[in-house]
Amino acid sequence: MPTYSIPNLGNACRLLRHMSDQRDGLSVTQLAQALKLPRTTCLRIVHTLASEGFLREQGGTYVLGGGVIPLGLKALQDLDLYTQSSPILRRLTEITGETSHLAVWSDSRSLIINVCDSPHPLRAASRPGTRAFGNCSATGKILLAFNHLENIGEILPPEHRARFTAHSICDLDELKVELRRVQALGYALDNEEYHEGVRCLAAPVRNAHGEVCASIGLTAATLRFPESKTAEVAREVIDAGNKLSLQLGWNI
Asked: Which CATH superfamily is domain 79-247 in?
């Protein structure tokens, strides 16, 4: 069967995906440069998406519009992982008092699809829909270690290995060592690699075939999650991951 493709529809999808990674608004010129598109083509795409509510103009730049929200929520609701993980995340947060979350691999990033917030007024957590860099997020390291270690250089070229703090692991050889350590331990740490003063620990979630299909994680300020608590937190997060795996049909 022949494959049919509409180039500018593909460009619109690339533009929305690029916008989802940005913290600030982008101008049409910036988008055209980032996507390597003619400015007039980019302008037409932006105006079309804005007219449909998928983008919103903000002081001469564009940000994602409210039109993407119902689509994302519907996609999340249709994921069995989302439904089955919710009570497990709530229980993990009850036990630890910290924010828990679930992530899957998407376009060279760790995509957070479910979050249960800590009751603490000061908490460090990403929201559902956030795409975290794999080299410095605990959930990303889990998904890379168990699924992509052999072709890590292709999956994570230099532009996908971001440095956010002095602790971020960007060197490919160092990252391979880290991921082998993750395999051996059965859990991964983000040790202030994404944000100073924040630590995260994640464990694998397996499907009925034993494949690591997701990663469950816990995020906390280093004041409440010092290194001395790593073993304790790892036990709880691994246990939560195993419980979700059992619900997905994995026979431990």
From this structure: GAF domain (3.30.450.40)
Angle CA(218)–CA(219)–CA(225) in degrees, nearest 5? 100
**CB-CB contact of 208 with 228 (8 Å):** no
7-68 — its CATH code? 1.10.10.10
Strands 212-221, 99-106: pairing is antiparallel
pLDDT (tens digit per residue) in 134-151? 999 999 999 999 999 989
pTM: 0.72
What kind and span of H or E run contains 90?
Answer: helix 80-96
Q: Name the amino acid, one letter, at 103.
A: A
Q: Domain map of the chain by residue range?
A: 7-68, 79-247
Structure tokens at 41: 């083509």
CA angle 101, 102, 104 (to 5 degrees): 145
What is the phi/psi pair of residue 120, to 5°? -65, 135
